[in-house]
């Protein structure tokens, strides 16, 4: 399970729906796995405003991952200035060099400049860092959801529904 | 032929051999991918989105969502999260190394994501399963209501959901769509090839009163 997914997940129990304690679920005995994924800059830009940054920061801390900045990056920090943007004098442009490869591929990518390191770091933590084994614990009811081979078991016994 | 949902609950019906049969049958694969493309066109997503797949099975729809195609998935590739009640189906998805995250979950128990999580949701041939209750304490109406309420809350405003399903009869069709409307959705039923053996029913749902132009 990607850390992105965990950032949107809540306890499934009806009794926990109305409390703020049921989010985020806290990992226990988590075993992480890095799974490479294609960089999708427009997806990162789309999803970033919906990410609960504080929850993501705490999660990274709990998992012993590198510390995230206190505030979520601004959308402007995700793309280098577009070389074709006439509002930027050309001598001010820093060519992104190797990072610029893949530029102009695919539709809808033309408007943005090259993805910045900030965007790539977000991609890595949100989409490539996954929980392979462990438990996810609700802060309200204490229910622990098992994660096996990356699949979380959210089936509730009927008395907990 | 008896309908599978009338004989056993889906987690029992889709045991290992049924799951494999379902996933390897090229006829089923073809129909499933056709319906996924239809649902995608009804969602009309313009950019890479976060999508919930209810009843994702072995990830047949997910593989289409994950692949950019100028003709059939112009807004993609999308990132998806799939729920399924059958662990055998999910095991097949795992083997195929699909890109979406997988959950063993019963949509009739609700949708465990915080409000406004998804841009869109898709469900292919799954919602009819919600119409049978497996125990006396769970009524079909209760399961449908928990599902649609949870789905409604988990979609962002302006979001859409398309659920293709096989209603047993008109009564069931009505029961499903009115449960969606009660949850707050704008709802429309769309029928492809009506009156034929290959009739397909799509429930097209909008959040926030968006007009249906599909
Ligand atoms: Zn809980």
TrEMBL record, chain A:
GO terms for molecular function: protein heterodimerization activity. Residues 102-112 have a biased composition (Acidic residues). It comes from the Eukaryota. InterPro entries: Trm112, Trm112-like. Residues 92-101 have a biased composition (Basic and acidic residues). PANTHER family: MULTIFUNCTIONAL METHYLTRANSFERASE SUBUNIT TRM112-LIKE PROTEIN, UPF0315 PROTEIN-RELATED. Residues 71-117 are annotated as: Disordered. This is Trm112p-domain-containing protein. Belongs to the TRM112 family. GO terms for biological process: rRNA (guanine-N7)-methylation; tRNA methylation. It holds the Pfam family Trm112p.
């Amino acid at each position: 399970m990607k850390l992105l997914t965990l950032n949107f997940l809540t306890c499934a129990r009806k009794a926990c729906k109305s409390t703020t304690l049921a989010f985020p679920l806290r990992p226990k005995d988590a075993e992480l796995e890095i799974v490479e994924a294609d960089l999708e800059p427009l997806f990162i830009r789309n999803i970033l405003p919906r990410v609960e940054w504080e929850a993501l920061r705490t999660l990274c801390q709990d998992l012993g991952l590198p510390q995230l900045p206190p505030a979520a990056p601004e959308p402007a920090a995700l793309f280098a200035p577009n070389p074709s943007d006439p509002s930027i004098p050309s001598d001010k442009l820093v060519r992104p060099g190797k990072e610029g490869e893949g530029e102009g591929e695919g539709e809808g990518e033309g408007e943005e400049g090259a993805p910045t390191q900030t965007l790539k770091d977000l991609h890595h933590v949100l989409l490539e860092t996954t929980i392979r084994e462990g438990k996810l614990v609700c802060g309200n009811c204490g229910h622990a959801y098992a994660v096996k081979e990356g699949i979380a078991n959210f089936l509730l016994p009927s008395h907990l529904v | 032929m008896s309908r599978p949902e009338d004989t056993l609950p889906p987690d029992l019906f889709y045991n290992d051999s049924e799951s494999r049969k379902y996933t390897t049958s090229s006829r089923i694969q073809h129909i499933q991918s056709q319906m996924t493309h239809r649902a995608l066109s009804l969602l009309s997503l313009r950019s890479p989105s976060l999508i919930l797949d209810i009843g994702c099975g072995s990830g047949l729809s997910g593989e289409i969502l994950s692949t950019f195609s100028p003709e059939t998935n112009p807004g993609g590739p999308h990132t998806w999260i799939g729920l399924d009640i059958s662990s055998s189906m999910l095991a097949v998805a795992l083997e195929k190394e699909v890109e979406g995250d997988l959950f063993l979950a019963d949509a009739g128990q609700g949708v465990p994501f915080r409000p406004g999580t998804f841009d869109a949701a898709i469900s292919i041939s799954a919602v009819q399963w919600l119409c049978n209750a497996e125990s006396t304490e769970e009524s079909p109406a209760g399961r449908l209501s928990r599902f649609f309420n949870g789905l409604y809350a988990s979609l962002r405003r302006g979001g859409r959901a398309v659920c293709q399903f096989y209603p047993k009869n008109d009564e069931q069709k009505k029961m499903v769509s009115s449960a969606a409307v009660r949850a707050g959705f704008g709802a429309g039923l769309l029928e492809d090839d009506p009156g034929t053996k290959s009739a397909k029913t799509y429930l097209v749902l909008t959040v926030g009163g968006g007009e249906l132009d599909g």
